[in-house]
Amino acid sequence: MATDQMAVSAARGEVPEAFDEVADRYDLMVAMNPGYHAHLRRSARTLVAGLPAGPVSRVVDIGCGSGASTRALVDELDDSPGRAEVLGVDGSTGMLEQARRRLADVEAAIRNVEGGIYGICETCGRPIAPERLAARPAARTCIDCAP
Length: 147
Ligand SMILES: [Zn+2]
Fold this sequence. Notes:
The protein is mainly alpha-helical. The chain has 5 helices and 2 strands, in the order ααβαβαα.
């Protein structure tokens, strides 16, 4: 099998399956790399700065994983409402499930801010440590109750 055929074969089956297997640990790995999000923000800023003037219909984040790069793009476009729709795509259903879970956590955090209960553990009702919220602003539980 030629090298390019093997790459296509891996892309269609093995690579997404490998990411499915590690998807639940991927966000932790990303969170433990403090420079990663700074690089994502810098890349998103560069990409948005290079967009043509005027409305852009869609920016596609190919290989979006659990959504950190997509989030960086959305944040960077926040100052230009309506300029672009950001679409994240990935071959790994496990990574997309993590992205959906993360989105649900962010939406819950926004509801908690609006309801005046942001930073309260959903399991035990005690305050979540500020250090935990700094690292994971959408954390729903304190570290003791973390799943
Ligand atoms: Zn708790």
